[in-house]
Amino acid sequence: MSARASSYTPDIQARGNGIWSRIWKVFWNERFLWLMALPGLLFFVVYKYLPMLGVVIAFKDYNLMLGIWDSKWVGLKHFYRIFENPDIGRIFLNTLIISFYQIVFAFTIPIFLAIMIHEVSKRSFKRVLQTVFYMPHFLSWVVVAGIFYLMFQSDGAVNNMLLDMGLSKIDILSNSDNFRFMLVLQVIWKESGWGTIIYLAALSSIDMELYEAAKMDGAGRLRQIWNITLPGIRSTIVVLFILRLGSVLDVGFEQIFLMLNPSVRDVGEVIETYVYQAGVVNGNFSFSTAVGLLKGLIGLIMIFGANKLAKRMGERGVF
Amino acid sequence: MKLPGKKVLSLILACSMAASMLAACGNGGKESNASGGQSTGDAGKKYSVSAMNILYGAAPPTTNSTGIKAIEERYGIEYKYIPVAAGDYTNKVGVTVASGDMPDMMLMEDPNANYFNWAGSGMFLPIEDYIKDYPNLSKIPQEIWDMLTYEGHIYGVPRLRGIPFHAMVIRQDWLDKLGLKMPTNYDELYEVMKAFTLNDPDGNGKKDTYGFALDGTFSGFNGLFGSYRALRFGWFEDGQGGITHGYLMPNAKDAVSYLARAYKDGLFSPDYTIKKGTQADEDFLTGKAGIIGNWAYTAFSKARFDKAYSVNKDFRVTSVPPLTGPDGYKGYGKYHGFYGFFVMPASLGKDEDKVKKLLSILDDQIGDEGAEFMKWGVENEHHKQENGQNVLTDKGLTEGTGKYVLTNHAAEGEWIYNPDDWDELKKMKDENFKVALEGEPYSDQSIGLFSPTYSEKGKELDQFLTDQVNKIILGERPVEDYDKIIQEWKGRGGEQVIKEFNEAYQKRKQG
Q: Where does the ABC transmembrane type-1 domain lie (chain A) (predicted)?
């Protein structure tokens, strides 16, 4: 690229041509590349950037009749309303705690799982394992929640079995002590297998000679994992971790909405379910947009922060 | 699939923006066309009539349908029927109104904040001057027209429903088996619920039944606490000339403590909070609970009883006459008598003949003969005679006139039956209809009233109340806390809602 660009410098020396004509020259030279990129660019402009303009309704009283542009400006009213709610602290805390659990458990387990699959030497067995682990990902949350209700409600399969065995019933669905724990277990069961895909790809690119060399030096299995496998996927883990932090306030609306009930709302209500109730059900689109904007902002800060931290620790980061 | 709220929202907004832009462009041309064409036509011309209506279940065909053809022939119109699935209906109405291209008749589900907004900004055609000219419309009770009146104008023709609302329904075969008699007050009800829980009414040797089918959203409280006149999401006369929220009525705390005691004694399913109204219904039909609180006469349907009979052939139910409340009151809450109403766009005002045509169609469907036609359709095509009784044919079930009905006959006498009801079901339906209106039935006063605060925060406020009351029932908070909860509810905006609803109520009372 740079070599090509420098070859045009003689043209630019023509007097009176400013920076624009220089840009035009570069552009003209690469016109076919741009042409090829055009559909992709259009896609992003039309479906990603134009809708973003709708974010102005966070600062307006959006009225369906008046439309986006003619609705009244109200400044930060909807942002104030977020903090007026006496429950907002609890809701925010719930979101952070559930998100923390998910990062500690649901984020790390796929790494271990991927390494374990990687260590399986028989190819056909590995394939079978992978397929089995991927399966739950393709069930929708509605199905998973339905299964959970049928199994664990007070007269469900599990409790009936326990009762027949002479044991006492267990309460999983409406018990506020273990609700978050159950949520994270569900995520682990459903998404761990799927989460291994990227790690497995990274693992397959590790040079096999390293393992042979290590074996010659007398390193055992665990030693090899610690000194070769893990360092081999370290940068992948860091990148995924940074991206995960960007959605730290997204804890999975569908899942939590389906599992939530009045008994566990104190520990289970998160920002997304609150926005659904306050914004969408009540038809208060401005309010839900304001919350969404705030969430996006926090996510952005988290990504920048984590990226900086990663760079300081000697990793490459995402940008 | 994870859908962050903002993305979905911006998508919706973008779509509706695009839709409204397109519609706005298209509309200008079309409208001038239409008015030009109509002014030259004569009064007896064939109007094209479009109608948007809410749809439950499968959509009927909207082209090439014998039902539509029969309707077109009856009214001499070209009929364009637009069914919209119930789940999307509210959104669709918003987008339709925003686009400025409303169909000739459009169903609004209830007189909500949007309705008042739109009526106020002159979107709809006032029809109060015409009503007296139509024999069936003029027979609709004034009470109902009052609920639809906004600033002196009526903008909608109601879809009539029965006045009776939810009543309590009990397993008669369980009562008989345990040798119990029908409860008449709340202490007796408690004993019956206890017996249903402890004495194995289904005779399977296991303690797996409960007294009452309770759910976490409290959908059965009109039946259960009818005579308490409390714990309902409605606004009722407070006896001092104003109205107040059902959770603030004098007996509300009593009702909560009744529930807490019953939960402690195990009369409800221990994890009732995970259930919604449909699961409670399921529990009742499959013999897990002996009493349910939200069965109006419309609940007596073939589908429900088929399900119940498939579990237990002896399933028999009776509607419980209103119990005597703690203060001696007897009666269930009433329904407001209509579900949804049809509005017309203000632009129709230019064409009075068409307005009259539309009103005559709605009027006809409320009258005996028109309603009969809409229910059964054309003989030998949509229905046939079997043993001297009308039966819908397969065609009648999929594309009969009943699939395109707009409004209907007042719910009285024979008109409350479905075509597939059998005699025993009709009898139960009649009984429920009658029982729900025994004693002194009372109405929710807030229908047709508008409170800006309630329309903004209402759902949150209601949820706060159910959550806290659930905690009391579960024993996580003492019953004494109820007053504190109400105070907190007021602080969160309830006070303002009370004020606004009362102002609107007084304004309506003074006419």
A: 92-306
